Amino acid sequence: MKPIQVGLLGIGTVGSGTFHVLQRNQEEIRRRAGRGIEITMVADLDVERARSVVGDQVQVVNDARAVIANPDIDIVIELIGGYGVAKALVLEAIAAGKHVVTANKALLAVHGTEIFAAASAKGVMVAFEAAVAGGIPIIKALREGLTANAIQWIAGIINGTTNFILSEMRDKGLDFEVVLKEAQRLGYAEADPTFDIEGVDAAHKATLMSAIAFGIPVQFDKAYVEGITKLSAADIRYAEQLGYRIKLLGITKRAANGIELRVHPALVPAKRLIANVEGAMNAVMVQGDAVGTTLYYGKGAGSEPTASAVIADLVDIARLHTADAAQRVPHLAFQPDEMSDVPVLPMSQVVTSYYLRLSVSDEAGVLARVTGILAGAGISIDAVLQREADEVGGEGSTHTDLIILTHDTVEGTMDRAIAEMQALPTVLAPITRIRKEELA
């Protein structure tokens, strides 16, 4: 059978990895796909650099639309990134009857509903395994492997940059800004790390997983997003003393009145496997009603790990290229006319438990006033840790840290309780609040 022909838009880190892995393992891939898969055309603004990667056997152009217009190209891989030109090119490729493979989580999290609808109308596939957790096949697991399950919740470490930073802060006792500079020096963090450290990248990925898990449209604008920039070495140390580790988690959960979709730092019990995922690695926990808890672990970024996912999508398309469109796995796991309108809950309605750190005057009655406010709000306390003033502020210090772990409560209730505690004259600094996830 004639090899399926692929056009590649953008041959940076992931694009070059895709080309090299496809070349290196071409016979293995052909045996699995049932036909050859060949990248025959590449578009990149830096034509000379692209040609140095692919050699003379592949046509290299500087115009992505020339790839889309080529009638011999069956699949277009979009690796340009971003929301702008990438969206236009993906929609043009779909309109031209090309299947699309993309690693662009930002594009799909924001414009996925429009893109998937266009692909369904045209009878082509948009595959995006590489958009979430790099080389970990979590999209296929959710769409196919766990299809018998009613998914209860997903919790993932899905940004390697922030996990590296948190691991270093814990191991070395350093504050965020110091470790961020080191992460940039080592190449784990971009020169502008905003999308990573503010949780946006993880929220893009969580949005896609949420849509697949619960059969709802992609709704990035409904996600609650909080990064790691305000975490201190003290909080990581206190969490450790209480038997927890702090991780930036992407969480989506089925609740009684809607779907939770949130990204934020969370205390996770140190005994959980996911709490021991260190460095730039990724891990995703999925709880299904039939299967129980499953864990997926591996490299969430990098040239060849991400290429692994891109090529898996190419193989899927090669296998299903001639199949009736109605028999293919739906983009978001559920049939398009069976998508749910269950709402994504605002953060104020989410129920979880909390770690609170209060910098307070070292005087009698402070703990009683604080716990009285929590009791008045109906918030149950799980544990209290009060440090000696000398430990916190040095000899002769007149302030100390009060750490409280709570049981589950509604976020809106906790917001009001924190505001009331903050108003106490004995509370000397803004209260630190970190959510706690048992992941049981």
Automatic annotation (TrEMBL):
Keywords: Amino-acid biosynthesis, Methionine biosynthesis, NADP, Oxidoreductase, Threonine biosynthesis. Gene3D superfamilies: 3.30.70.260, Dihydrodipicolinate Reductase, domain 2, NAD(P)-binding Rossmann-like Domain. It comes from the Bacteria. The keyword Transferase does not apply. InterPro entries: ACT-like_dom_sf, ACT_dom, Asp/hSer_DH_NAD-bd, HDH, HDH_cat, HDH_CS, NAD(P)-bd_dom_sf. Residues 355-436 form the ACT domain. It holds the Pfam family NAD_binding_3. It is an enzyme of class 1 (oxidoreductase). Its EC number is 1.1.1.3. Pathway: Amino-acid biosynthesis; L-methionine biosynthesis via de novo pathway; L-homoserine from L-aspartate: step 3/3; Amino-acid biosynthesis; L-threonine biosynthesis; L-threonine from L-aspartate: step 3/5. Belongs to the homoserine dehydrogenase family. This is Homoserine dehydrogenase. It comes from Curvibacter microcysteis.
